[in-house]
Each structure stands twice: as structure tokens, then as C-alpha cells.
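Fold this complex.
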Amino acid sequence: MNKSHLSRCLAALLAAMTLLTACGGDGGSGEQTTPTTTAPSAGETTASADDGPALDAYGREIIEADLPDVKFEGETFTVHTRGNVEKYEWLAEEVTGEALNDAIYKRNHTIEDKYGITLNIVAEGSWSDYSSSTLPKLQASIQANTGEYDLIAGYSAPFANMATTGMLYDLNTLQYIDFDKPWWWQSFKEASAVNGINYFGLGALSLSAIYSMAAVFFNPEIMEEVNSGVDPYQLVLDGKWTWDKMNELGANAVKELDGDNAMGAGDRWGMAFVNGANTVNMYGVASGEKLSTRNSDDTISIDVNVEKWGNVIDNMIKLINSENALIASEGDCRKMFINGQTLFESSWLYYAQTQIAPAVEAYGVLPVPKMNESQESYHGWIQGGMHMYAIPVDVKDVERASILTEAFAAETYASLLPAYYEVILKARYFADEASSQMMDIMYDSVDFDFARIYDGQIGIQTTIKDSVTAKQNTFASSFASFKKVYDKKLSSFLSKVETNAG
Amino acid sequence: MMKTFIRSALVALLTLALVIPSAAASVTPQTIEAGQSTWEINQITTAPTLDGTVTAGEYPTTRRWNVGDPGTVSSLKEGKTYGYVDVNIGYDAQYLYIGAVVQEDTFAVKKASGTYSAFVFHLGCNMKDDMLSAQQYIEATLAINENGSEFGGISVISYDENGTQKKSWDYMKQLNAQMKYSRGTDGNGKAITTYEIFVPFDVIKAAYGLDKIDTKAWFNFSVNHRDDDGTSNGSFGWYNPLTDDQQADLMIEFNFSPKSLYNFIAFVGTSAAETTAAPAETTTAAPVETTAAPTTTAPAVTTAAPAQTPATADTGIVLAACIAMAAAAVLALRRRETN
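Structure:
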């Protein structure tokens, strides 16, 4: 998706946001009416200033999906999605006055009405049992040729395994899936292709990809108190938002509060990092170093620059174990940030949406910093909780599935994504206009890497994580030991894909 | 002339087979020759009393582990430590008897869910030399809460060929049936926690479909330390970490590898009554500090060399084939000479 239009039309956006803020928050009557509190639909257009293409209310060129004018009267379109987070992507049973819910409701009904279908959402499984329960169940259903599901929103980390099964359509072969449209994430399409096949699509449909984006939250009150005059947003824009800078600003926030003369859970910290792989992954990606290379002939190699990665790991060990940093469980990090005991918390947007926003009056969001100023750009990580979309090979009518998938994606881009991304995240949750630019930077800098998308098959992320968590940089020797394993696993993975590809 | 030539060729062939088989054979990683230690444990004549204490002579084999001892692994943070861990152990046809005594000044685990101490051990009885067999074991967490309540969580664990763990609690009731713990002091007035458990071999055999218990079993233990806020302060235990190279070799061979493999206990036939080593004293005195189990023969703890050299089945096959060829050729020659 191209977000540059959004950035160019900030004025239109702000005007729209003002309008939406004025309209929003009046609660819902509970009646099944067309929501009036959501973002303007794609139909609301503004003329471009230079008689160019018509723009929508968010300043984006209006692009229509190239789909036939058809009706599937009375038919049901079934989407399988991971449970307990489905409400952020598919589930909205009635208008409630809550902007995201109502935007989903409207999107669903727009497509249902346009194509004469009934949308059926099957939401099951959670992150903890997706591999052991949900995925085997899906596979059994496809193998049995039940035609039960038309579209699958799969939990990306384990769902990537489906690439080896031959149970999914190559989306490139489906007439109505158009990856050139802005509702598909091109960089993901390129990074995730296996032997030229794209089993998975990622884009506007995957709101989970946006809420799974890594971010650094900051407490503006503490910032003002201990780093008065420092504008973190400007640091980002100036390219000076780095690991050292975050540590330096964080150092000023460290304060012994509970009187026990030892830093602990009762004190104030400069930075909070969740112990475990996610922190290592988000900072590893932020360094800009890749784990795999797509060669000119489209083959993949696990080509790691050992020297550069060694440097990244050294710096990561230094940052995470800084005396200004608290390393704790996810829950404890969140609790301390909400309690005002942390200046910076490294996390992802899901927690802003679900926990921090309701509990904290003001907070800021920043991209994960660059390793150093010489690094050209920011690099954003999306953790494995996102949904990748796929169409199973046993689908009853693949043409219909591709039409409706594309239709839902286009409508999500037109109406739901702005509601979620521009309104929910910017105007409502992030009560801070500057974070709009931060969001644009985060979105535009998302970095996909074949070896990370298919880490379940290759496993290189673990080697980096182990080096960092052990606080001993043994990456060079470990990589030398495990290189043959990665190569074998990659070869085996590609071979299975090739064998099972339809 | 011809005979001489054939004999010479045979000698050369045999010599070649003896000298170079390691170069010809592929290196097959071994799960049971990965550098583990083996601790010999003795058979018991009279079953210990299950009362949560360990008395002198109650167990035929005892060994003390201190943090920093060779073969132990510790990730304990500075200032967080254990005085010692004594494992008293014995077996008979029905049970493996374990009485673990841990010197710890306070309950070592402090979490929101409660303050307690715990002793964790793993016992695996499938001694086939492959990864799936090595990853079949019971995982026992024995815990005593500060309010005196006891908890024993014992699961039956196995892995599939992709390295995915499968955990079952189906046998928990049977495995939990005989265990008792207590807090007390040792002979030096130091606080100790004692965990006693009798593990029935029949349950393990049933859980893993084993016909019999081998003369060796996988075994490890660990004790974990957590702070008031639940932060991990590391652990201390007896197991066998694998090098990156070993893990990589095992991954190539078996598709997955743990970061460590357990050590071994070896069931020796010597009865407790026949041993000459001093028996353990009392639970109120510090247990006998030994580095080897009390046997009268060779040192009880041995360490197998890591499987760097390919003393493998491949080598054996090559040798056997060469010898068979040589024998057949000699027989043929004799027949010709006879004729």
C-alpha cells in the first residue's frame, strides 16, 4: 500500500479528523442503523487541488477494484479467523457507537449488500493453541475437501507452515486478486514469495498487521520533567532517534521512589523491555540488518553479515541491559508504564489500543529507534501475531472467493483502514497530532524478511535471541555451527513447497 | 604365486578396513554419547519410609552437588544461591526411590501465586539412541508452599519429529501417589527442604510402551530461584548442555535438538548392604559429601566422551563386511589348496 498520499494531504486529514472528532463519542442507540460516527466512506471525495485524480477524504487517490458486476444472491461467504482478536478485523454484530466496531459493521454490510451474500465468521483458537489445535483442524477440513472456508485469516507465525502443504491457492493465479492495488502490501508480497508462489496476502484486510507493529511508547509528563525542551518527534524526523539517544534520555528519568535504596519494581525507570524474543526481534529488525537475501534469480539464501550482526548484538545487549532499563514480563512492563513508572516502553500498537489508551490520559508513540545515526532509515517490525490471508484449495468456488476477497480488501482500504489507522490510532487513541507522522514513518518503514516470515521453518531468529538473552555475544560461532542447519531447513522447505505446489 | 597375491591382497584389505573405516563412515550424532555423566545408583533392600525426611542409611546411594561443582550448570544471579543439593536414591524392581534434600535459607520461589520451594527432576527410560527416545521422560515438579501445602506436578512428555512437545497428565495420579515433603534443618542448623518420592517403574513402562527398564535411564534435576516480584534469579542443576556444534549435528540428523540432554543414572546390582562406603548420616546432619556413589568398584560417576569420533554402527558394518569377505576368501583358498 502506498501511504505517501496520506502524508501529502495532512491538511485534508486534519480537517476530516476534526469533523470526526466532533461527530464521534456520542454513543450508540443500540439500534441497527447505519453508523454515523465512523470515518467518511470512500464515496466522500474531495477534488484534488490541481485537477488531478479525485481524492478521498484522507487525500488518497480513489482506486476502484477491477471486479465484475456480479451477485451471489443468497450465498454464504465463510471467513475463518483466529479467535479472541477477531473483533478487531471481522466481527461486528451490531452498531455500538464504537468507531472501529461500527466501521467493521459498515464494511461487512456494504459488501454483503453489494454482492448479495451473507458473511459467516468462524473465529476459533488463540495464539497458544493455534499450532496444536486450530491449524490441524483447518488442515483436516481442507484435506477432507469440505469446502468449509472461503478465506482464512491465519495467525502468521504457525500459518506460514501451510506453504509446504499444497493446501492453499497461489494467489498470483487467481484472476481477481490484484497485488498491484494499494490494499495489498507489495513489500510483503515480494518478501514472502516462495519459488514465485504467493500463498499469503497481507494488506488492508490485516488490521492485525497494524496493531502488531512494534513501537516505543513514551510518557510525555516524565519527558517534560526530566528532558525539558526535547521533542522526541523532532528527533525522529531529524534521524536522531537512536538506541543511544533513548538510553540517554531514559537515564534522566531513573529515580528511586520506594526508599529501599535499590532499583526495583517500585521505582521509576528510563526504559522497559519485555524479556524474550519479541524485544530482540524488534531491535534486530530496527538495526536494518537482514537475515536472508533474495538473489537475482529469485532464489533465497541465508546470507547473514556476521560482522555487522555481531555489532548489532553487542549494541542490543548494551541497550537492553542498561542500568536505566527494566527487563520484565509483558504484564509488568505494561503495568509500570500505565503507573507512570517508565519513560519509554518498547511494545506494539495492540497494547496502546487495548490497555494503555483506556488507562492513560496522554502518551506518545514513536518508531523503534535506529541503531545509530549513520543508519539510513528506520526499520519497523511486525510481530507474528498478524494475520496472513489465504484461500484454501478446497474452496467451493474459487472465482467467487477471489472476487469477494478482493472486494473486502478494497472496501477495507477505502473505509475501514482509515477508520482504524487514521482515526482510531491518531485522532482517538493517540491524543497527539504529531503521532500521525510517526505512524506514517512506522507504516512506511515496515521491513519484511523471508527468513523471519518463515522462521518456523528456518529458525535463525533463535540464534540471535539466545546470544542477546545470554548476554554473551556468541553469534559468530553459533552462526558458523548452525549455518548448515539453516541451509538444510531452507532447502527442505523449498523442496516441500515445490513438491506440493499444485 | 596366485595364492600369495590373494593372501597379500586380503591382508591389505583387512588392514585398510581397520585403518580407515572412520573416514569412510558418516558421522552419526549420538544422543547417548553426547558427553553425559553417568551416576551409578544401588539397588535397595528395604524400601525407605515415605515421610518427607531422609534418615541415615535409608537410601543406598547419595551424592551432594554444590553450586560450581564440575558437571553442574548454574545461571544463578549473584547473591542467589543454594547451600547444596543432596540426592539420595535407590531402586528395586518396582520403584525408583528419591529423597532430595536442598539447603536453602528461605523458600526460593516467590511469586504472586505463592511462596514456595521446588525440586524438579526428569526421568527417561527409553534408551534407544535417537532423539525421539531421548525426549521421552517424565517431568516432575515437587513443591512445598510456605503454608506447608504440598504440590506435585508430574507430566509425561514426548516430542514429535518436528520437535513439538506433547505433554500428558494422564498418569499424574499414579505418579503423584507416593510423595512427601518437609521443611527442617540439617546438622548445622541450616534450613533444608526435603522431597521424597517413589516413582513406580510400571507407570513409566505403560506411559511409553516399554517392555522393561534398561540398565540406564536419563536423569537430571534442577532447582529454580525467583525473587519477590517473580523475576527469575536463575537455576542450578545437573544436566548436560550441548555445544552449538552438537545441537547442529543433532538437528541435521533428527530435525530438532534440545539445548541440553540429561545425564544418566545406571542401575547397578550391588545391594546397599554390600557397599563399604559410609552411609549417609542423618537428616539433621549434613549428608555425606561424596563425589561418587558409594560402590566398591570403579568410580561411580563417569563421563562419556562426546560423540566426536564415529564409533558408529556404520564402522561396525564396514568391519564386519571386511572380515566376512576375508573369511570367505580364506575358506575359498583352503578349498582350492585342498583340491
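Residues 32 and 169 of chain B are 27 Å apart (CA to CA).
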